[in-house]
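Ticket #4471: structure export looks truncated?
Reporter: QA, pipeline team
Priority: medium

Steps to reproduce: submit the single chain below to the structure queue and open the exported record.
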Amino acid sequence: MDFDPSLYRKPDGEDGRELMEHMNAHHRPLMVWAIGELPPGRGRILDIGCGGGLSLELLAGAYEGSHVTGIDHSADAVEVSLARNAPLVEAGRCDVLAASVSDMPFTERSFDLVTAFETYFFWPEPTEDIRKACRLVAPGGVIAVVSEVRAKPGNEDAVLEYESVYGMRLLTDGEVLGAMRSEGLEARALHHGNGDWVTYLGRRP
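Actual output as written to the record:
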């Protein structure tokens, strides 16, 4: 099925729910790889743009005893994520809220791990919103911004196409890492062997 490109930014309605199932399956390998690169011992976890809820499931499984909070600006995504993770919700280990990355209802430095899978390039102001996400990272905590595509030398045409078709604003490694460092984080880019997948990992000392 060919999906309306606007649904990737905000998956709503019947087609949006179908797209979320598609994205859960498509993004699973990326998420598994990225989570495998994260440090152990995270108790308070926030996932920004949780979409179909697979990320919450995988994070809760990777961090036994953690509490995972998901946010998404799509009301349908919130419903789908809650349904997928019903056992975790009932156990008091997961909640999902309707919220935008630009206006998150959390106090600064309140999470041990903040994640964002395949979403930063849809944020209203990607650089500033990355900074806002970084402010939620507690001392000793980390943030992971994960993408299966990145702006790099040689793929300028692809970057322009992603923006024109999907409205994606891909940043360079330097731009993402610079935003993290401006908030006092130690930051580095982890590149998968395929050359495209990337995890931007920031740690607050």
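Status: closed, not a bug. The export was complete when the record was re-opened. Leaving a note from the reviewer for reference: The chain is about 40% helix and 20% strand.
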